[in-house]
């Protein structure tokens, strides 16, 4: 798995796609949804309470809800792109740092992919929630927010490992 993901081409293409999708999501799609700065979408992820989630979605208005439904596919693409980017960059750096035999590095590549999967699960749960808020379970909404937190917790760990591997690969090149 690491060898296939460590392609420079995959790192470059997924990196460009991630950057492009980040700009589209954060500066175009999310503001179209909440009618403000886009933080309402992140607030929904981390609401934990169904009533708070309902209030957030109602605050978007009918146009915001329609935009959410219309553009949610972009968040799926963003999750796929950043998961592949982080996993491929980590894999490339693992080989450059000669750390491919260390299980913790293989684990963190999996963590990058799991963050993307968590994002997909969270998106799917949010679609279900927005489509029928009354029927959506309080407990499932709470689980949705836990999944979002897991995603948000995984990403800094992945970034720390990228920084550590950049440092290691730099040391190996100096020798």
Poorly predicted runs of 5 or more residues: none
- Largest sheet, if any? none
Kindly name the structural category: mainly alpha
- In terms of DSSP E residues, the strand content is under 5%
How many structural units, i.e. domains?
A: 1
Beta-strand segment tally: 0
User: From the alpha-carbon coordinates, what is the Rg to the nearest angstrom?
Assistant: 18 Å
- Overall mean pLDDT score? 95
Helix content: over 70%
H/E element string? HHHHHH
* Intertermini distance: 28 Å
What is the count of DSSP helices, taking H or I runs of 4+ residues?
Answer: 6
- What is the general shape? elongated
What report would you give on this structure?
The chain is mainly alpha-helical. The chain has one domain. Helix content is 86%, strand content 0%. Helix 2 (8-34) runs antiparallel to helix 4 (50-96). The protein starts with a helix and ends with a helix. The mean pLDDT is 95.
Summarize, please.
By secondary structure, the chain is mainly α.
Task: Please name the defining characteristics of this protein.
175 residues, 6 helices, elongated
List the helices and strands and how they pair.
Layout: H1 2-5, H2 8-34, H3 39-45, H4 50-96, H5 103-131, H6 138-174
Helix pairs in contact: 2-4, 3-4, 4-5, 4-6, 5-6
């Amino acid at each position: 798995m690491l060898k296939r993901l460590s392609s420079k081409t995959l790192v470059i293409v997924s990196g460009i796609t991630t950057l492009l999708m980040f700009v589209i999501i954060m500066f175009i799609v999310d503001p179209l949804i909440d009618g403000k700065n886009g933080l309402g979408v992140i607030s929904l992820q981390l609401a934990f309470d169904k009533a708070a989630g309902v209030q957030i979605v109602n605050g978007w208005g009918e146009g915001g809800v329609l935009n959410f439904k219309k553009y949610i596919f972009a968040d799926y693409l963003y999750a796929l792109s950043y998961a592949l980017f982080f996993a491929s960059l980590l894999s490339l750096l693992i080989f450059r740092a000669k750390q491919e035999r260390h299980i913790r590095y293989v684990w963190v590549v999996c963590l990058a992919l799991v963050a993307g999967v968590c994002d997909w699960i969270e998106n799917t749960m949010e679609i279900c929630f927005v489509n029928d808020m009354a029927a959506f379970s309080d407990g499932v909404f709470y689980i949705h927010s836990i999944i979002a937190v897991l995603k948000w917790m995984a990403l800094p760990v992945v970034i720390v490992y990228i920084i550590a591997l950049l440092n290691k690969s730099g040391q190996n090149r100096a020798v």
